[in-house]
Amino acid sequence: MKKFLQNKKLLSAFIIVIVILIVLGGSVSLRKKRNAPLLIQSLGNDIVALGTRIIDVPVGWISGGLNSAHDILNTQDENNHLKREVTDLGQTKARNSTLEKENRQLKAALNLKDTLSGYTLVNASVISRAPDTWSDILTINKGSSAGIKKNMAVMCGGGVIGRIVEANAASSKVELITTTDESANRFSVQADATNGKSVHGIITVTNNNSLAFTQVVDGSKLKAGTRVYTSGMGGNSPKGLLIGTVTTTTRNSFGLSDQIKIKPAGDISDPSIVTVIERQVAN
Amino acid sequence: MSILRKWVLAIGLLIALILDGVASLYLHQFLDYGSFNAASVILPISVMLIGLFDDTNENEIWLAIGTGIIADIYFYGIIGIYTVFLAFACWICQRIARFLPEVFWARLIVILLGTTLFVGYGWFIFKAVGISTASIHALLMCMLTNLGWSIVFFILLYWIWGNLAQDYPFLIDLNAYRV
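Structure tokens for the assembled complex are given below, as produced in the milestone run.
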């Protein structure tokens, strides 16, 4: 022990390792526990986010130009597809309008204000992405000043892609739904089975980074193509946000519950504009 | 202006940090190889190049620590990934530069080893704190994919950081030594 204490290099290395472990552990703990980041952290993040937004403009122009050229090449196929969709759109809109009116009247009759499916939207642009391979974190250009709070669901391309993990004043971090973070909040979801009943479970990530609908009791009644959407039971997301569609159903490795693979509906690989969902019902 | 000259390297690293996030966003589709992704390593390469080009300036280790803290807070909200790696990489590169031939290829080998170590270190920390459950196979594939992109980033950054590190060492005004 005396030799160890007299060896300054060894002692310094030991102290540095201890300090690193304390800082790392402390910051991980703070990240998980706090609903809002520290003021200095929020300020620093917003200053870097401002710089990112400035650099993002010319890079976005170049990227947008290349995407436009790609879009022009696909215009004919897209046009044919859209023509087919438009024929159904008029009827769907008319039906939605009638249902919306009926829903309002029924809510008024029952004296209901906020329900599990009530939410408002905040649109934002993705300005940055964590450079590593292991954490799926995006930075968006809206923060708590726009009403964004920790744990709100984030959508892109018609489906849920993740949730807010940190809300600074003018920027926020989004953790993608494909994250393998063990402490991440999972979406509670449901799907309509072939027998007409609702099947409940949660969304997890399998070893090969694909989404799975787990903790399901009777998943064998879910056919491929069934839509899976949030149930609103978790307390953070409203009901009815589309997660994806069922692809295959298998038993888990213990044979105790069904594991249902899901094809995500949201654009997880290349999100540029996202919508943050603010749940209206009291948490 | 002399104050600005002393801080050119710090401003350059801040831009490198921002570019790392922006490149990761826009190049994400190209950084993938099947289900394995390469990391964007502009910032680690920049700090290692500074260490290799200017091996006498002790201030650059403090610059690496400062840049690391900002990068960690901005990208993850966890301090210890960039902060530790950038400081260690800068220190070790300054030591290596004292006996390494001052040629492109020798520095490329050091950078490739460094970025591979960075990917491995990131994997270890994320696994330790429970943010990732990626397997060793995924790590090895990522390291391989990363080598290719590291060469591309190294070629793009080599002359930029070479000139900046030699002409504008951190917190030193070279004009004070010129007659």
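Chain B touches chain A through 50 residues (CB under 8 Å). The mean pLDDT of chain B is 91. Further analysis is deferred to the final report.
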